[in-house]
Structures are given as C-alpha cells and as structure tokens.
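Researcher: Structure for this, please.
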Amino acid sequence: MPLASVVAAAFGDALTFWLPVSCAGCDALDVSLCSGCRDALAPRCIRRPLAPGLTVTSALPFDGVVARTIRALKEDGRTGLARALAPALDVALRAAVPAGARVTSVPGSRAAFRRRGYRPVDLLVARAGWRTQRLLHLQRSTLDQRGLGRHARRRNLEGALRARPVTGTVVVVDDVVTTGATLVEAARALRAAGADRVIAVTLAATPRHHGDAG
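Model: Predicted structure, token format:
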C-alpha cells in the first residue's frame, strides 16, 4: 500500500481512538462497532454471473449494517472499520482465488484519492492479509457512477481502463458490486492485456442484483 495510504489510515485510526464515536452500524454511543453489528458482518458468500465468462463472488449483501459500515469507511474516513470488514472479504477471496492467480484491485479516480487520502479497496485487501499487484489504471476520466442506471454505467466505463501485460488467471477485487459495469470493464481490459481468465471478488453486493447464496 502506498505510504500516503498508510499514513491516512493510521491518522483515521487515531481519530477513532481519541474522539467520541458511535457504532457505524446502529449509532450506539462510545463504540466504533457494537458486538451485534460485528455479528452482522459474518460472511455469507454470494455468487452471480456478470457477463459471459465472468462471475463475481461477494462476501456480504450490501444492506443494513453492512451498507452503513462500508459507507462509514468510504465516506466518513473511519478506516479502523476495515479491520472488522476484512475477515468477510478474506473468506470470499479464499473461496474464489485459485492457486497461482494474480490479485489486483479496481483503480479509483485521482479525485477520490485526493478527497479521502486512501483507497478503500486496497485498505480492505491489505487488512484481509492479501497482496495486490497494480495491473489496472484509468486511461480517461469518467463520471461518478452513483445515480447512473445500468446502461449508463456501462457506457460511462467503456474503454476507461487499461491493464499492464499479464498472463494466466487474474482476480480483480472491488468493494461493492451494483450493476457490475466496473468489473466487466476491468475484465475486458485484463483480457485485452493477455489474461487467460478473470475472476471477480467484492466485499458486498447490492441485494436487488445479487444471485443465489453460495
């Protein structure tokens, strides 16, 4: 993880320690995440196809406590929550990553990194004990995906990513899958760069789009 991300994460953890907090999942006072909300983060892996030859494994449904905790991590700078979310992501990665596969993450925009000071996906993967290779990068600017429909998301991301030359199987990780447009574009870029097979893993999946529990 880049030094700037490490410093930002450590600063966020320190703020969580010294300043009064409430539970990210239920707003209970004086605890960053209560025991009941921690229990709600127990993994229940979900698998669904995104496109021909591409399936995503997600650790959790993105609703309730899970959604609130992930939003607190991403939007409120509460980086200490990554430690509570990471075990579920680790389970999904162990279920999906074959031996010898390379693991990479979906790149965020520069604007998002400047705003947060860290990359949530990379932080989650690191807390889960996995290492990623920086294989993907944005080659053009895109609109914020929030508020866009399924087809608009895909059009927004078409051709937006480029991958370094790569062979074999690649596992691409993101925090939340909604329509799957980002992961489909990542898979396209990786295959164009030489990957033989692409597998997708996310921490969470929006319930209205996910498939059967695995």
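Researcher: Any notable elements?
Model: The chain has one domain: 3-205. Helices lie at 3-18, 35-39, 64-75, 82-96, 110-116, 120-127, 150-157, 181-192.
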